[in-house]
Amino acid sequence: MASKNAILLAAAMTEVSNNQVITHQDYITRKFGNVRYQELDTNALHQSHLIGGPVPNNNNRVNTQQANTVNNNNNNNNNNNNNGEITLSIKPLSGKAFKIRVKPTDTIYQVKQKIQNEQGILPEAQRLLFQGNQLENGKSVTSYEIQDNTEVFLVLRQRGGEDIYFIHSDHLDPQYDCDFTNIRDVGKTFMRGAFEYKRPCGWNRLALKVLNKYENNIWLGVGGTRRDGTASCQNEWPVSYHGTSRHNNNTIADDGFNYGGNKNFNFTHGIYSTPDVNVALKYATRFVHEGNNYAVLFQNRVNPINLERIIAPNGAGEYWVSRNGGDVRSYGICIKKV
After folding, report:
1. N or C end: fewer C-beta atoms under 10 angstroms in the chain?
2. Is residue 178 part of a domain?
3. What residues make up the domain containing 292?
4. Which PROSITE patterns match (predicted)?
């Protein structure tokens, strides 16, 4: 029988992904005929649901140096690719990524048609996401600043329950689960990556398996020297949280941008998260499980290089802006009864 945490996580991911998700144990023991089962890629789910948006900038455009860099890159891409085409890596929530060739002037609907030619998936069944944006059919590839060798995420729309996803146990790391439900950090300050780490007190944190997944484990503080449990290791990344829902009709990116006012940043699009789990709760996806109401958040490590901080006025919290999705790595999923 699946553990209580595994069952709760499956319910949470069902709401986040808008697809039916079951535990690995249920997949093994309760498979039904005429149903296609797919293994859920938790990293793809996380990356596809990062909330991106504009970064406050006096002119709301990249600076001259960046603009020249972008133009040079585009020119190089056009020179190096036949007919000015670029390559996109399409990553679904299940299975391997595949590549397609598109023109920067192609519309997103034309991209979906090329995906149909490659995979047989109808355009109407596809949702494409890039850097926190759901791509609109009528807009062009270049309007989203999508460049050569970019990863775009593919989420399939639910089709009458034909497809069921399962969370493979290999994606989870229960030894690092930590139930903070009854923990209160009064008078304690924890540090991660030279930033204050506000632990998810009141939440149950389920760990994702991320050890040895990237080029090294330094970003997690593994292998570093930590003076005690509250201290930070050299070169580890700080901790943030993000949810995928709206609060008062705004996403975390909308609110972060508004709080940022006219502060001048050096890039004009970014992924928003927050180091404060109480701020993130406003944007947490809600779901019902066994008659109880819950909220779910992703817990991340964030690359401190090029990290921008927005301090909201009147104690409304802090927002972080990362340059791109690769600078935000999820290592846990936090669930709380609300």
Report:
1. N
2. yes
3. 170-337
4. UBIQUITIN_2
For CA atoms 320, 229, 204, 330, give the dihedral sign: positive
Can you list the positions of beta strands (E) in the chain? 21-23, 36-39, 52-54, 86-92, 98-102, 126-130, 133-134, 150-156, 163-167, 178-179, 190-192, 195-197, 204-207, 239-242, 269-273, 285-289, 292-302, 308-311, 318-322, 328-337
Q: Answer whether 332's CB lies under 8 Å from 250's CB.
A: no
255 closest CA partner among 244, 243, 247, 263: 247
Look at the chain and count its residues. Answer: 338
pLDDT tens readout for residues 105-157: 999 999 999 999 999 988 988 989 988 788 999 999 999 889 899 899 998 87
* DSSP conformational letter for 208: B
Contacts of 170 (CB under 8 A, 6+ apart): 209
Domain-located, residue 244: yes
Backbone angles phi, psi at 27, to 5 degrees: -60, -40
Flag whether 289 is in a domain. Answer: yes
**Residues 220, 185 contacting (CB under 8 angstroms):** no
Contact at 8 Å (CB) between 26 and 2?
Answer: yes
Amino acid type, 186: V
Q: Specify the pTM.
A: 0.84
Backbone conformation region of residue 314, classed left if phi is above 0, alpha if psi is from -120 to 50, else beta: left
Residue 37 in any domain: the answer is no
- Between CA 239 and CA 300 the distance in angstroms is 6
